[in-house]
Amino acid sequence: MTQHPIAVIGATGQQGSGVIDALLEQRQAVRALVRDPDSAPARALVDRGVEVVAADQEDTASLQRGLTDIGSLFFMTTFAGSDGPEGEVRRGLAVAEAAARAGVPSVVYSSVGGAERATGIPHFESKYQVEQRLRDVVPAKFVRPTFFMENLAPQFAGDGSGELVLRLPIAGDVPVQMVAVRDIGAAAARMLIDPHAIDGDAVELGGDELTMTQVAERAAAVLGRAVRYDAVPLDVLGDDEDLRAMFRWFGTLPAYRADFGLTRRLVPDVHDLAAWLSELSGVRAGASA
Questions:
Q1: Which residue numbers delimit the NmrA-like domain (predicted)?
Q2: 6-288 — its CATH code?
Q3: How is residue 58 annotated by DSSP?
Q4: What is the chain's percent helix, strand, coil content, to nearest 5?
Q5: Beta-bridge mates of residue 109
Q6: Minimal CA–CA distance to 105: which of 191, 22, 1?
Q7: How many CB atoms lie within 10 A of CB 177?
Q8: Would you place residue 53 in the very low, low, confident or very high pLDDT band (cuts 50, 70, 90)?
Q9: Buried b vs exposed e over 225-236: b needs ≥16 C-beta within 10 Å?
């Protein structure tokens, strides 16, 4: 156990849950900062031995209270919601200021691969603004994930019969770097426990690099069914200029630039797509049994 708990903001979300899982595996004391301590996911954390406290990224005072006397902090931000990337920046800066006032010794922030490369993608630029402020006020390091494998999960849902068709607004022959959320959590946990786990202050995380046509081939081999990939036009994204900018960027190579070697040093059993698919299909099979 660390002398002080490691705090996790966004503890009931995908990335926060992955970080907590990895920390508990290492027998670290964990403090989860959540909006609603009485929610079912928060109560489930308590049952696992996690300290749960009420804090909201829109409430600086609650953040500062929750961040007092901790060993380190993990957090991420989201551009989801009506206030989009502007709200993401506001919330990220609030956490940065609260962490500084609380004297947090070190912070690991989950940003996005390419954030520092002036992509022009609004929700990449917003995360980089948070990175910049964190650098100014606290000792901070950054995990920059590539495309989440979990973004593909809804397309693998179904009854398991017939041909499966995957669709994204990207050409089938364009390589895309990707990573499993579980591995983001494991890498972040390693850096929270050991601030010297990486040289420099950032790592772009990747577990695999495949074209979408290859994704379909891997899926067919793992799932034992016919799978094909059909590229669709950007118009399927409607007037969402943020996502349209991201998918255009995917096709301008090199887009993501993961450090696969460093990722594997942080997470020796990092998932490639086939391993992730095997786990996903196993979980779904278990749920339906």
A1: 5-257
A2: 3.40.50.720
A3: T
A4: 45, 20, 35
A5: 75, 142
A6: 191
A7: 22
A8: very high
A9: eebebeeeeeee
Distance CA 237, CA 241 (A): 8
Using DSSP's 3-state secondary structure scheme, residue 119 falls into coil
Each residue's pLDDT tens digit, 56-80: 988 889 999 999 999 999 999 999 8
- Quick one: pLDDT at residue 1? 43
Per-residue pLDDT band at 2 (split at 50, 70, 90): very low
Q: Could you tell me how many residues make up the chain? A: 289
* Model confidence pLDDT, tens digit, residues 159-175: 667 899 999 999 999 99
Alpha-carbon 84 to chain mean position: 17
Neighbouring-strand partners of residue 54: 34
What does 168-200 look like in DSSP terms, one character per residue?
ESS-TTSEEEEE-HHHHHHHHHHHHH-TTSSSS
With contact defined as beta carbons under 8 Å apart, do 126 and 159 qualify?
Answer: no
Closest CA to 8 of 53, 41, 39: 53
Q: What DSSP string describes 204-247?
A: EE-SEEEEHHHHHHHHHHHHTS-EEEEE--GGGGTT-HHHHHHH
